Amino acid sequence: MNTDDLTPEEAARWALRAGLPLADERRAAVAVTAAHIQSVVATLREIDFGDTAPAAVFTAGQEHADAAV
User: Fold this and answer.
1) Helix 27-45 and helix 8-17, axial crossing angle in degrees, nearest 10
2) Angle at CA 5, nearest 5°, toward 3 and 7?
3) What percent of the chain has pLDDT over 90?
4) 19, 13 contact by CB (below 8 A)
5) At 62, is the pLDDT very low, low, confident or very high (cuts 50, 70, 90)?
6) Distance CA 26, CA 17 (A)
7) DSSP H stretches of helix in the chain
């Protein structure tokens, strides 16, 4: 779903499709919020994690202190 030009009416239609009836006075705010969320998600998708291991292999508390900082 592209939210760049999401109108309040389209926001209401998408909400209803998801089973969430949307009151008229909330449509504009929901459209703006959806656009903001989409922009944040787009930014996160651009991050290059490279050789970053998945979270499942991370074990907290096993960092070795190194005096040579």
Assistant:
1) 80
2) 95
3) 57
4) no
5) low
6) 16
7) 8-17, 27-45
